[in-house]
Amino acid sequence: MRTELAADVVVPDGATGVVLFAHGSGSSRLSPRNRAVARELNRRGLATVLMDLLTEEEGRLDEIDGRLRFDIGLLAERLIEAVDRLGTRVATAGLPVGLFGASTGGAAALVAAAARPDIVRAVVSRGGRPDLAGPALAQVAVPTLLIVGGNDPLVVDLNQRSRRVLAGPSELRVIPGASHLFEEPGTLEQVATLAADWFTGALR
Questions:
Q1: Nearest residue to 204 (alpha-carbon basis) of 12, 17, 6, 11
Q2: By residue range, what is the domain housing residue 97?
Q3: What is the pLDDT of residues 181-194, one digit of tens each?
Q4: CA 184, CA 149: separation in Å to the nearest integer?
Q5: Are 200 and 46 in contact, with CB atoms under 8 Å apart?
Q6: 47 part of a folded domain
Q7: How far is Cα 81 from Cα 41, in angstroms, rounded to an integer?
Q8: The domain that contains 61 carries what CATH number?
Q9: Helix, strand, or coil here: 129?
Q10: Which residue, among 86, 140, 84, 85, has the nearest Cα to 108 in the 3D structure?
């Protein structure tokens, strides 16, 4: 049965592609960081879909024990369903698709890219955990950009290891002075610029 999830969709005039956001680690479509990235993508002519991967009830349960945010199978399933829906919506049908994943949403985005190789054209992961994608990591053939903060050494190491497993072209960009959440002045703007450059190059 299809799960109804809240989503915010922005489609600029003449959009050249659409980017679906996968939030993680207790975040939602209201994440100010992902919204900031989405605004830059919109400015560059890309449509964006910011959606919750958990229902309201699931979100409340996750706030208690934090387990669902690490249920990559569930998050990826919801994301794949959303990818499939994009082709049925008038505003996004026919547009090349990219996925932007943050934290555990990065793993979900990679699993979805592996599951829908004929639809998803590119992936960007911000402070993501690509290692949690498991065996799907070796099946991701689309261009993938991994962005991590220089002050987040564990995640930098996990991304370096994961990049060696990816089947397709990839880049790892480490932003100096940035922590896991990219809260330091100017760091999130760098993320937005890198993501916009990656997607505008790939979604053509």
A1: 17
A2: 7-202
A3: 899 999 999 999 99
A4: 10
A5: yes
A6: yes
A7: 22
A8: 3.40.50.1820
A9: coil
A10: 140
Helix axes 32-43, 187-202, angle to 10 degrees: 50
**C-beta atoms surrounding 14 within 10 Å:** 6
Helix-strand-coil split of the chain, %, nearest 5:
45, 20, 35
Spatial CA neighbour of 129 closest among 149, 113, 108:
108
Read off the tokens for 28.
Answer: 């939602």
Q: What is the pTM of this model?
A: 0.91
Query: Buried (b) or exposed (e) across 112-140, using 16+ Cβ within 10 A?
Result: bbbbbeebbbbbbbbbbbbbbbeebbebb
Domains held by the chain: number: 1
Please choose, from the candidates 145, 127, 142, 140, the residue with its C-alpha nearest in 3D space to the C-alpha of residue 195: 145
Q: Residue 172 burial by CB count (10 A; 0-12/13-18/19+): exposed, middle or buried?
A: middle
Confirm whether 2 is domain-assigned: no
Q: Note the pLDDT of residue 1.
A: 44
- Amino acid symbol at 136: A
